Amino acid sequence: MRNLDVQQVLRWIVTAIVLMIAIVLLGFVLKIAGFLLGYAIRGLIVLLLLAIVIRLVGGLKGRR
What confidence tens digit (pLDDT) does each residue in 47-61 have? Predict the structure, then answer.
């Protein structure tokens, strides 16, 4: 009976270690994603402004 309790405790310890590793990896991935999100938003703003300028230039050419 006592051996079964030790195995149960070892399973809980292994489960806790796996969960801790998963949380650390998730934090790392989220940190990288947050870092890249800033660049993605800046790139999106630049592309949006470029599309607006092209649309305005096309509208001015269409009036002539």
Answer: 999 999 999 998 888
